[in-house]
Every structure is written in structure tokens, then in C-alpha cells.
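Quick one, T. Sequence first:
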Amino acid sequence: MKYGALFSTLCAMLVYYAITSGGLFLLLLWPAVSIGIVGLGYLVLAHRVFGKRPDGSTALASTLLLLP
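C-alpha cells:
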């Protein structure tokens, strides 16, 4: 639970900083979304958020989204 709160707070801080700074700082939205998804995984969605298959492999789309 504490990791979920930490990641969610970090996500909110990155989104705020990216939006208020503008310009190239908007590129921070990608890591913010990625960190937000991980935070949701810790808080609500559990292992399903990472798109893991029963054999332990991950889907390409989830790998690219969670890359940073």
C-alpha cells in the first residue's frame, strides 16, 4: 500500500510539473503515465496491470507502455 501511494504521488507531481512547465517538459507525461499505472497496480489492479500471461511473458503493448 505504501508503494502505491508513493508511485501515485510521484505520478501527480510529474503531471503537475509537465503541465505547468510546458514545452519539452510535456515529455514527462509518458513516465508519469507509466508510474501511475504501476501505482494503480500496487493499489488496485494487482498483477493484471502488467499484462502478464500465465507463462510469465508480457505483451508487447504493456512492455512499451511501462518501458520508462
